[in-house]
Known about the structure:
Layout: H1 9-17, H2 34-55, H3 59-70, H4 72-75, H5 80-86, H6 92-110, H7 114-137, H8 163-177, H9 182-206, H10 211-227, H11 232-260, E1 310-311, E2 314-315
Antiparallel strand pairs: 1-2
Helix pairs in contact: 2-10, 5-9, 6-7, 6-8, 7-8, 7-10, 7-11, 8-9, 8-10, 9-10
Amino acid sequence: MRTERNLTRLDRVFARLDREPERPAHLDVPVMSRHRIALFAGTLAFYIAIVWAVLITSWLVRLDWQVMFFRPYQQWPEIHAFVDYYVVLGQRGPTAVMVAAWLGWRSWRQHTLRPLLALGVSLLLLNVTVGAAKIGMGRLGPHYATTVGANEMWLGGDIFPSGHTANAVVTWGILAYLASTPRARRWLSALSAVVSLGVGMSTVYLGTHWLSDVLLGWAAGLLILLALPWFEPLITRAEAWILGVRDRWFARLGRRAATKLPVSPPAAPTPPAADPEKTPLREPVAAPRTRAPAYLAPGPHTARSDRTPVTPAGSRRPPHADRHPRGAAPAARPVSGG
């Protein structure tokens, strides 16, 4: 009786690493539902409230100064080295490379460019929106503050909102956005929230951001993730255009390779093998003899017509009265008078 081996957890993990034969049909593309629209509106209201509270120098600005004077990096110096490394999880370069590598494998495995295109769109929105807010409000950081209790706005700074925090929310939250199952989406959402929260508090600990910068960075990153379904049609059209360009390019390369290949003449048909029982036997033909080259002895040679045939009995040519032996001068003929 044949029994099947039960797959272990490691076997299932390696099975997930194999490329699927074709693009899965169950890929869940988020849509702009009412629940998402409500979350987007609430986050946008929170964003505006934080900006307004800083502009009017409210209690939030006073809290910023109290945290700055507390100097957390001096209160807990033993975790300073760890925080220096942990805050890298919010830097755009390293995090974008790590997440792009994972989403690139997802794109290859599922035969789709949507994961990479969604990451590109989210980072583009992050650079435009957060960068414009930083430059527009120009707030100075805690290390460069000039007046105690002031909001330090429009002084040429670039720390409001916190770019590290917003980047952590978007970069790690895109993994939850592209998750293929609801369970994976919940776990990844919780993981991205913890990571982005830790990155934001790390910048406050190091004294590079006000607490209000971190709050606005969380809201800015969450707004980008919630607005991504509005860009799904653009992502779909971009994917179709890129794949179309790829197919046309491959077709052109195939035509060029076909025209460059040399055209060989058709091979002559090989005669069928003869049946040894029906084929009459032929006599073997002797190979033609090759005549060895003749080598002449040294000395003067005469033409064949001047040679005298010699036999053992002597010459076979009859004597002639007018013939003289070789080397002798011919006798003078008598001149008859006339």
